[in-house]
Amino acid sequence: MHERKIPLNLNCGLDLIGEVLYGKWKIRLLWFINEGHKRPSELQRKIPDASRRVLTIQLKELEDHELITKVIYPVVPPKVEYSLTDFGKTVIPIISALGQWGDDNEKRLRKLILKRLEN
Predict the structure, then answer these.
(1) How far apart are CA 31 and CA 112, in angstroms?
(2) How far apart are CA 86 and CA 93, in angstroms?
(3) Who contacts 27 (Cβ-Cβ below 8 Å, separation ≥6)?
(4) 87-101 confidence digits (pLDDT tens)
């Protein structure tokens, strides 16, 4: 079993959100599943920079946190589809608001990110 280097801290809502949504691709996975991209291969195409292994791990974590469900169809080859749970659907407006904030501040954020990378 994986042993944490940093102790788990669940003292407030932000700690809880961080524990559930922390991961480079989790927010995008939730967004794309909400948009109807349900198959692992579709999600891989939507996020080509992510390795299949990392996507699988993060999908499993989202499933463990009851934000998505996984259905395995008994066909050959096996067909897998993910969908948002009712609980998972409650985070979509928050993700949408974050995306809108990013869009509204795109120029400034790009400039700051690129400046940081130069240093």
Answers:
(1) 25
(2) 13
(3) 21, 95, 98
(4) 999 999 999 999 999
What is the rounded distance in angstroms from the CA atom of residue 57 to the CA atom of residue 63? 10
Q: Are 62 and 55 in contact (CB under 8 A)?
A: no
Q: pLDDT tens for residues 4-56?
A: 677 777 889 988 998 899 999 999 999 999 999 899 999 999 999 999 999 99
Phi and psi of 11, rounded to 5°? -85, -15
Residue ranges per domain, the chain?
13-118
We find that the CATH architecture of domain 13-118 is Orthogonal Bundle (1.10)
Say if pTM beats, i.e. exceeds, 0.90: no
